[in-house]
Amino acid sequence: MTAACILFSALTLFILSSTLRRVYNEESFSLFESAWVFFSIFVQQGFNELVKLVKQGKYSILMDSKSLTRTEMIANSQLPVYQDLWYEIGVNHRIKYVKGIRSAVNFLLQNPAYVLLGPKTVLKMYEQTDCRLTLLQETILPTYVSIALAKDSPYSTFFSNRFVLPVRW
Question: Quick check: 162 and 137 in contact, CB under 8 A?
Fold first, then answer.
């Protein structure tokens, strides 16, 4: 059913963009690009799915022991998804603290049933230097807390690898 919705939406976008190209000389999408747009939307539904899987006991949260302020931000949030996450952290104890972000990354790579919550800039650096790590596009706070997981983690199948253009110097 999901595949049919993606294909129907892609076909609709393809037809509309082709029509706009003919009428207004606009840029159009190929059928593949149209399908990719809707496939990407489907597979990157991120954080809500992560919380759902943590609640099901499939994953545990991993954080640096120095990140208690991040834990407090999750605990104090009024958003239902964060309240669910806090319940899993605070009540069901589905969290492990390790000393230092490097130790957290190493632990994560050895234990793919964990997801790491940490600072986006630091996690982005690790993602760029270690191809075994991937960073979710969705974040808890745009620059302060991001979500990382091991590339071979069973959870990574829920997310597509994003296209990264090579940096040219």
Answer: yes
